[in-house]
Design goal:
Blueprint (H helix, E strand, L loop, with lengths): L1 H8 L2 H5 L4 H19 L17 H10 L4
Helix pairs in contact: 1-3
Length: 70
């Protein structure tokens, strides 16, 4: 699903042309945050990569989203 989001946001033509690395990093961070929010929905509130991960709950929620029986 993340690949689909990234492919829709950044087409191949843009990747092969000159692109501002800061802009590309910003897009990647935005999409990674969206992915984290989708995976942790109902388990943890993820609003950013700083405060949302400080107590470890968001990280545990990501792990739980893949292995709920652990």
């Amino acid at each position: 699903k993340l690949d689909l989001i990234l492919n829709n946001s950044i087409n191949k033509k843009t990747l092969h042309s000159e692109i501002d690395p800061a802009r590309l990093q910003g897009l990647a961070e935005k999409h990674l945050l969206l992915w984290c929010q989708e995976r942790t929905k109902g388990l943890a509130e993820v609003t950013n990569f700083t405060t949302s991960f400080q107590d470890g709950k968001a990280f545990c929620a990501l792990l739980y989203s893949y292995q709920p029986n652990c």
